[in-house]
Amino acid sequence: MRRVLLLATLLVASVVSAAPAGADPILDGTLSTPTRLTSSTIEVLYYLQLHAGPQEERFSLRLSPPRFATLGSLDEGQTLDGPRAIALQGPGTIGQRSTDGSFAAPCSTSGDHRHAYATGDTTVDLLLPPGSRTTVAVRYRTGRSAPWFDTNARLTFAVLPALVGEYAASSPFAAGPTATARQTLRTAGPAVGGRLAAHLLLASAPGGTVGSIDRAPKRVGRRSPIRLSGKVVPAVRHKKVVLQWARGTGPRHTLAIVRTDSRGRFSGPSWRPGAKGSYELWARYPKQAGTLAPDQTSCPVRFRVR
After folding, report:
1. Which of 89, 99, 93 is nearest to 121 (CA)?
2. Pair 83, 220 in one domain
3. pLDDT tens digits, residue range 254-276?
4. Is the peptide bond between 54 and the residue preceding it cis, with omega within 30 degrees of 0?
């Protein structure tokens, strides 16, 4: 696969924790490539430029992909899925690594639906020779669909005064960490461009359950009125949004086809479940005239009817 490698302008980000001279690696800045994230982007390369002081330095480096929420503070996914590779461009040694579990569990009983991409932080041990200058390169795989207007592709690098691996006495990491303070740099990340997808933010009244299927669906009475509403990001006026419902793992049925107002908002008629059981309510932005690619909320609003 052809890879686009356009070197971004160096971002000199602020260091959160200042490092004592000679005790901690010095973080010089970050780079990322390509400069634009589009539906044809296969992967994003991130770089952290750093150098060691007069002594050998051992520490762990935590890589935190961005998180974003669709309803309030509910974290439902990540924009990137990886990393696929970690390498050093310059002197140094890569040790053991640890990857946190995904924090966006499937959110529908009808399939493996997740709102974007779900990977946890990756932490890797590094050793730098005295006085060395090197660059940590990290490759993250991107999604296969057009990015959202509000997609965030910024990656956070954090130097930690610890090691995540366990090493034999003969290992160069056996003496333990030398870093004494946490330092953090965040990339600017590629800008979102090209073909964009509609990002649907869905809500309901009464409020249902959104997110992991490990969370119990909201309980409502039979024939209780439920109304869906939300908005499209970016705001587009007079565009179709298809509202749907499904019982259990059954097929989706169209509840209504509504149109957005001048601020991209939409709302549907009240819907009343006709039988006991579990229900999922969805929204979909169909293919239509305009610049936005079709998309749907990957996470439904869930209810259990008594």
Report:
1. 99
2. no
3. 999 999 999 999 999 999 998 99
4. no
